[in-house]
Request: fold
Amino acid sequence: MRKVIGFLCCLCLVVVNLSCEEDVIYSRNYPRLKTLPVTEISAEGARLNAEFLLRGDTEIISYGFVFISGSGNNFEELRRVVIPGNIQDESFSVFIGSGLASNWRYWVRAFVETDDFMVYGEEVLFRSLGSSGPELLSFSPKEGHLTDTLRIKGVFENYSVKVEIDQFEAPVLEFNSEEVSVLIPESLSNEKAQVSVSAIGNTSTFEELFTLLRPTINSFDTPEVSIGSEMVINGANFNPLPDQVELFFLDTEGTLHPAEILSISENQIVTRIPEDINSKVLQVIIHQNNFEVIGEQEVTINDPKVDSFFPLSGKTNTEITIQGSSFASSATNTKVRIDGYEAEIVEISSSEIVAIVPKQVKRIYSSRDVSVEVEVFSVRAQASDTFRITDKWFRINDLPFFIERDLGVWKGLSIDQKGYVLFDGGTWSYNPQTGQWDELTAFPESMRRNPGILPINNKIYLGTGYDSSLGIHMKDFWEYDVINDIWVQKTDYPGEARTGALSFGLGTSGYIGAGYINNPSSGLTDVWRYDSTTDNWSQVADHPGSGTRSLSYLASTILNGEAIVGIGLGGVSVTSSNDFYKYNANSDQWLQIADYPYGTLSGRYPAVAFTIGNRAYFKPPWEDARRIGFYDGNTWTLEDDPLNSSYYFSFVIDNVAYIGVEGVPGQEFWTYDVSQPD
Reply:
């Protein structure tokens, strides 16, 4: 209202000035005006009219109308319609076809401008019925992307304008009476869209439509790619702004995998194959300008390739790093197999996998040199090198025979590069070159428990033991010819019949002694020597054990030409003791050596003993199942034993121990190779 009052006051001052100088004006013939009533008022606009009361002889520079508008207490700024030039007519009028708001009041005055004065007519009030929208001339660009800038040229006066594209309001960036700049609205989704401009409730619309660019996918530089590698997509209408484009790879399970856009132009996108894809065949999908475009051509993932791995050797349950290409980062789609056994994957990328070499506890590797293989989407790739397993304990094929725990194995020994196992169920030989077991002629007499067994030259001798069927201890003595597979009975053992006897061979002689008759806690001490060349027996020095010292079920092995004997059953109770002795056949003497370093060995009989190089190894089963000790001629050393099982027998060929082990569900067979690195 203050604007209207001010406007009217200004006009009054002009009239006062004209009145005060009335004589001067008439004497100088200045023009005088009258603002006529507004006519042709409609929804299309209104006509403003004026006439000259006095034309005068002064040159007119311009003429026209000024008017101010308002709705309630809302008022727009002063508007001016100027017609340049010196008018000769007695009246003039202008049709206002835009910029008039419906049901608004307008105060209008005509004016004439000369070199010296601005002359106004009186005000005229009218109420508008509206008008057409702003006059629109052009817009550019004709096509584009969401959030692009659209420039619209037209006649906008000084009114604020509202621009809509396909009925979505476009944010105004810049505005003047001749041009308005807006952003293409993010909600636009139709490929062809109308552009409309509104001012004070009046709207104008371009006949020409704006085109929202729909991207197209034409081709790929290569349709076969590796996971994690770059890929080029050729097409058209891509938005060069990468944050306005979303790229996906669709797998056969219907999962969308977002892909990184490395670079983008109107005709090309460079991307990277995601590492988390779940299938070998993919489709490319682009989201842009609220369009979803699916490529017709499929993308095929290259088969995996193993270039190398490290280390080239190592122990089971340790890490191996495999390098290559086209690995899937999902462990569900990528598998690592060592000798066919699936390995746990610790870390994975498209070019590198860290996995754990599977333990041997439930697996039997084909050899120490095993294959390394990666499988991706059911396609396998194998490394050219093999991985060398360096575990000292190495499992090989299970035993082809079963040994009952209650009866137990008699003994294992080696002759002429073969291993032999004798037990109640038969006689078997093992060839380490072929990994083949052969069943031989079984012991011809009735089955017996815990006989003494020993090798002399290339033959095996067996005697004593307990005959379960007869219920008596035995003293018969037999020779087994491994070459001819023949058992021959020899001179009986001259000592008392017994079981659990100590037995070992030195040179051409064998030794059997100690053991027990009726009660393991009342052990015998006598020891007898057998001469295989004469088939004769002779008594030698007694075993020095007595009282609580070990006498029954003694384990023995040969170290540096002497028998190392220990871990037997004590003389007072059934508790095994840890005392050890060595026997020198040349001096016929027993000498006590360092005790086994594990305190009381309760329930640890019979033990398994073998010699590798300059070390005598003893493995007490049962409670002490995770430790194995070796004696180097001076001291004992304990090593970890990963098997945690009862041993049945052992023999050594080429400094590698072969050990039969009680396992679940069957009888396991392991090698122990001290030459493998720690």
Observations:
- Helices lie at 2-20, 22-28.
- The chain is about 5% helix and 50% strand.
- The chain has a mean pLDDT of 87.
